[in-house]
Amino acid sequence: MVLKLREVGLLRNGRWILNQINWEVKQGEHWALLGLNGAGKTALLHMLSAYHFPTTGEVEVLGRRFGKDELGEALRQDIGLVSQTLQGRFYEEDSAYQIILSGGFASIGLYATPTDDMRERAKDLLKELGCFHYANRPFYTLSQGERQRVMIARSLMGNPKLLILDEPTNGLDFLAKEQLLDAVETIGSRANAPTILYVTHHVDELLPIFKQTLMLKSGEVFASGLTQDLLTKQTLSHFFGIEVDLSWHHKRPQIWRC
Ligand SMILES: Nc1ncnc2c1ncn2[C@@H]1O[C@H](COP(=O)(O)OP(=O)(O)OP(=O)(O)O)[C@@H](O)[C@H]1O
Fold it and tell me: InterPro entries this protein is in (predicted)?
């Protein structure tokens, strides 16, 4: 089991920002986590990465039970987290290649000498994520879409068991977004892929690899299960609180306001 949450609640400043969350993610599944602004997505991700401890309920991530097993760094090494808040922490002068290599040490800069295997792996990831042609450019010269792909490659350097992508297409134009989604699809389709948890506001980002979806609303699970079954005009209209139309193009959903 990758994740197991039972009746989880998180109380902050007198407010339940997560409430009665039940969720199980099994090995080999890739999930989308869909929620509007303020739904509690960040709170939930911070809990899974052991930055928040649940007020109520039980949480188990990658076989470690909160409150019973050692968490912190040990757990975080098995989790690749890509979030825009992390991007600002990197040294802007470092090249894309150096930043990807630093993922092998789980460090922000590159202080140790990488092994030949690490260099080979970083090069493979540069190619897989389509970053090879800007491998030697300083991070500050890269576009937001290029940076995001570097961040994903970096998170894969440590061979995580769980890869969390937190709104990775934020700020990307149409082309950069589609390129990034292609990269996510490729990573998720690999035989030895980590379990991917893809957090988004946008229904059209629910790629075919995300066979399961958790819909989060006001800190509670609105619905969860097979994406194909969950995504109906009725469920989505109820979820968003306005009537929407739904259609599928190349196995990807799209919605419009009626
Ligand atoms: N420490 C806190 N005290 C009180 N309320 C909080 C605290 N932290 C978060 N919240 C509230 O909990 C709710 C969920 O916040 P969270 O950041 O998890 O939402 P989100 O789904 O990630 O939203 P977004 O998509 O806008 O990033 C929000 O209404 C937020 O204001």
Answer: AAA+_ATPase, ABC_transporter-like_ATP-bd, ABC_transporter-like_CS, ABC_transpr_CbiO/EcfA_su, ECF_ABC_transporter_ATP-bd, P-loop_NTPase
As for the ipTM of the complex, it is: 0.95
- 12-68 pLDDT, tens digit each: 999 999 999 999 999 999 999 999 999 999 999 989 988 889 999 999 999 999 877
Which of 42, 166, 220 gets mutated to test ligand 1 (max ligand atoms within 8 A of its CB)? Answer: 42
**For the whole prediction, is pTM greater than 0.90?**
yes
CA nearest ligand 1 atom 18, residue: 40
Cβ neighbours of 26 (radius 10 Å):
12
All domains in the chain, ordered by first residue: 3-257 (3.40.50.300)
Which atom of ligand 1 lies nearest, measured to the CA of 12?
A: 3
